[in-house]
Design a protein that fits this description.
This protein is mainly alpha-helical. The chain has helices at residues 3-8, 10-30, 35-39, 49-77, 79-98, 103-131, 134-165, 170-173, 175-189, 203-226, 232-252, 268-298, 303-308, 311-331, 333-351, 360-387, 394-439, 443-449, 453-463, 468-503; strands spanning 521-522, 525-526. It has a two-stranded antiparallel sheet. A hairpin with a 2-residue loop joins strand 1 and strand 2 (525-526). Helix 6 packs antiparallel against helix 17, helix 10 (203-226) runs antiparallel to helix 11 (232-252) and helix 15 (333-351) runs antiparallel to helix 20. The chain starts with a helix and ends in a 9-residue tail after the last strand.
Length: 535
């Protein structure tokens, strides 16, 4: 595909990338509303609480652990090529997940889905960076960010709708037609691009990044599950993961052609934006994740209703992500980011007061404001990251941004989950002991039920009338834990606000290094489409 054709088709190519994003990101949230169904031995696969956790975590572990690797390889081997390979793997693994016969098969298939998704995600942003000229790139990235938010929101909604009408495997099988459409359009609308000056491959750097990230994320996830750092495999994985990543950074700083040029972090546009994204996703991830339990276990809504209640967040993302570049020009990047982070912090204050009978319109309003504020922060931050690196390193920069986001999300769910879990177990212990004594229920079964509100509610349903004594204390204990987690999130949000106010540059993101270099004009514009294009 020549550069003139690539330039003409750039918006159609963006639509294809949005399809890829919707499939990959939505699938990471669609499973949340199906957990209760999957645990059923008749209607699901009879998965235990630990197996359900690993059905989610196997995807996250592989996805986040390989994001950086495939971002770098996309720069070297071709971004469209890896995008296509990733979609093929993701689609095939989705079909395998849909027809899994037991929890072990589902966990393995989800891991393969994460493998495919790790090839897809970094290429979407690096293709945008190399196809769109600088004056349009912010708008395109805004649409990209809006698509991410839309996918996160429609995942639970689509999952609830499918579960209402079909069997549980439909939440995975629905990916296949979207994958086929994306593959069919990709070779018509998206040009191939790669780094023409890649230099010698950094085999050692890539080899170090994979175990470092996998060990770190495994330690984070497992620590959150067990609400403890005492087990040797938890602290061992964390310490070893940090050590390997430190060794990776030292190696990258000493070689002429690194996979990750650590000098990027000297640019405040890059480093402050990375720090802001990390703090925000850490502080928000756990709250958003556990709100799904609030809807279904505290308010006792169906999966479909719980999914639909997330849609206001999607609307906020869709409206404000594309508008954020215009807002940056009006008020400046730092003022806009500070306002956005401050609104997110206000939402955390609201979550510290949420109760069983809090009016739904009020919750929906704060959810809308929170998502909108995130959009106006993340879009210019992502644009700043991608604008501060040379075109040939777009995949590496995209991978760093996505990896940081995934690691921060895993940390947020783990840390805030541990806060909620620890408080919940402590608060429920006396009530569970009383119920166990009155009903002659196996104490081990009661202790297991006290690990989470879902477990307690399941026990209450089993015990019938005798189990009603568990319901109100369980809801109160969960809400108290959620309030505490919201306070922790507020603390991290305020740290993010401080980072923005002190270190973020005032102006809009400038052109990236290399913009305009050897960039032929197409239709009076500097087309980046052919700068690194292959066919």
């Amino acid at each position: 595909m020549d550069q003139r054709t690539a330039y003409r088709r750039r918006w159609g190519g963006l639509a294809v990338l949005v399809i890829c994003l919707l499939v990959v990101v939505a699938d990471n949230t669609i499973l949340n509303v199906a957990l209760r169904t999957l645990s059923d031995p008749v209607d699901g696969v009879g998965a235990s609480q630990a197996q359900l956790a690993w059905a989610i975590n196997s995807y996250t572990l592989v996805f986040a652990g390989l994001l950086f690797t495939f971002g770098v390889l996309g720069d070297r081997w071709g971004r469209r090529r890896l995008l296509a390979c990733g979609l093929l793997v993701f689609g095939a693994a989705s079909a395998l997940s849909a027809y899994s016969q037991n929890p072990e098969q589902l966990i393995a298939a989800r891991a393969v889905m994460g493998f495919g998704a790790s090839m897809v995600m970094p290429q979407t942003l690096s293709v945008i960076t190399n196809v769109f000229p600088s004056e349009e790139r912010g708008r395109a990235i805004g649409i990209w960010a809006g698509a991410v938010g839309l996918a996160m929101a429609i995942g639970p909604s689509a999952g609830g709708l499918l579960l209402e009408n079909f069997w549980w495997g439909s939440i995975f099988l629905v990916n296949v037609p979207f994958v086929l459409v994306g593959l069919a359009l990709m070779f018509v609308l998206i040009p191939e691009s790669k780094d023409p000056n890649a230099g010698r491959p950094d085999v050692v750097g890539v080899a170090l990044s994979i175990p470092g990230l996998v060990l770190l994320i495994y330690g984070i996830i497992t620590a959150g599950e067990r609400a403890s750092l005492a087990d040797w495999d938890v602290y061992g994985a964390l310490v070893l993961g940090v050590a390997v990543i430190a060794l990776f950074l030292v190696h990258e700083s000493r070689i002429p052609n690194p996979s990750l040029d650590v000098r990027f972090f000297r640019d405040p546009r890059f480093s402050v934006s990375i720090a802001t994204i990390m703090v925000l996703f850490f502080s928000m991830a756990g709250i958003i994740f556990f709100l799904s339990f609030y809807w279904q276990s505290v308010r006792e809504f169906t999966p479909l209703v719980a999914g639909l209640l997330v849609l206001p967040a999607a609307i906020g993302q869709m409206i404000f992500a594309p508008l954020s570049t215009t807002l940056v020009r009006w008020v400046g990047a730092r003022a806009l980011a500070a306002t956005g982070v401050a609104i997110v912090c206000c939402s955390f204050v609201f979550y510290t007061q949420i109760g069983q009978d809090t009016p739904l319109p009020l919750i929906i309003m704060f959810f809308f404001l929170q998502a909108s504020a995130m959009a106006v922060v993340l879009t210019p931050a992502t644009d700043a990251i991608m604008s501060s690196v040379p075109p040939g390193k777009a995949g590496s920069a995209s991978a760093v941004q996505n990896t940081v986001r995934q690691v921060a999300t895993a940390m947020g769910v783990a840390v805030l989950g541990a806060v909620i879990s620890f408080h919940y177990r402590s608060a429920m212990a006396p009530t569970l002991d009383t119920v166990a004594a009155e009903t002659d229920t196996d104490p081990a079964r009661v202790r297991a039920a006290g690990e989470s509100i879902e477990g307690t509610m399941a026990l209450a349903r089993e015990l019938g009338a005798q189990g009603r004594a568990l319901v109100d204390p369980a809801k109160e204990a969960f809400l108290a834990g959620l309030h505490l987690a919201a306070m922790v999130s507020l603390g991290f949000g305020l740290v993010g606000l401080l980072v923005v106010l002190v270190w973020m540059p005032r102006g809009a993101p400038g052109p990236r290094r290399g913009d305009g270099d050897d960039a032929p004009a197409v239709g009076g514009r500097d087309s980046a489409a052919g700068r690194e294009s292959g066919s």
